[in-house]
Design goal:
Strand order of the largest sheet: 1-3-2
Shape: globular
Mean pLDDT: 86
Distance between the termini: 26 Å
Structural class: mainly alpha
Number of domains: 2
Radius of gyration: 18 Å
Number of helices: 8
Number of strands: 5
Order of helices and strands: HEHEEHHEHHEHH
Largest sheet: 3 strands, mixed
Strand content: 5-15%
Length: about 180
């Protein structure tokens, strides 16, 4: 991702007029890809100086609420694609064997000492019935494909579940409309 986010004209020459869209997690690593503050909020595609259209995931309401309840400053909030989905949905997927979390907290949540001291006790005590559980722990990478397949089946029956992605879709439509595509 860092090479795609790099400054310079060399990448534009390679693209030869093609549009390339990249979506990054809205976690510390994703936010550090650019120094341009416009990218940091998430939810809209913007053309980077190198010609690639970038967007960060837009923090959904439940994510923002839980992070605020936990007292996590915006710069330490770890929003990945799995956390775009409500905790109840991830809990159901876990119950059906399609989702799991790691035992340790998100790296972003323990990057700052005071925050780590505050959240570490919660990670070991908060249970899955508490929606904070699903935001304190990272998704298990071994379950990513199973979760994606599980979600695809749900979305086919319940397209409204994709609502948190609406800002991205609208932004993508706007970019395409600008070019008459």
């Amino acid at each position: 991702m860092k090479s795609l986010a790099g400054e310079g004209k060399a990448l534009r020459a390679v693209l030869e007029g093609r549009r390339v869209f990249a979506l990054a997690d809205n976690d510390r690593a994703g936010r550090e890809l650019w120094s341009d503050g416009h990218f940091r909020k998430g939810g809209s595609f913007r053309r980077h100086a190198n010609g690639i259209f970038w967007a960060l995931l837009p923090p959904p309401a439940e994510f923002r609420t839980v992070m605020a309840e936990l007292g996590v400053p915006e710069g330490f909030r770890p929003l990945t694609i799995e956390q775009m989905w409500p905790a109840a949905l991830r809990e159901q997927a876990a119950a059906e064997g399609a989702y799991a979390t790691l035992a340790e907290p998100w790296t972003d949540l323990v990057a700052e000492v005071a925050l780590a001291k505050k959240l570490a006790p919660l990670v070991g005590t908060v249970q899955p019935e508490d929606r904070r559980f699903w935001y304190l722990r990272a998704a298990d990478p071994a379950k990513k494909e199973a979760f994606a397949a599980w979600l695809a089946a749900r979305l086919a029956r319940e397209p409204q579940l994709a609502e948190p992605f609406r800002p991205l879709v609208e932004s993508l439509e706007a970019v395409l409309a600008e070019d008459g595509a």
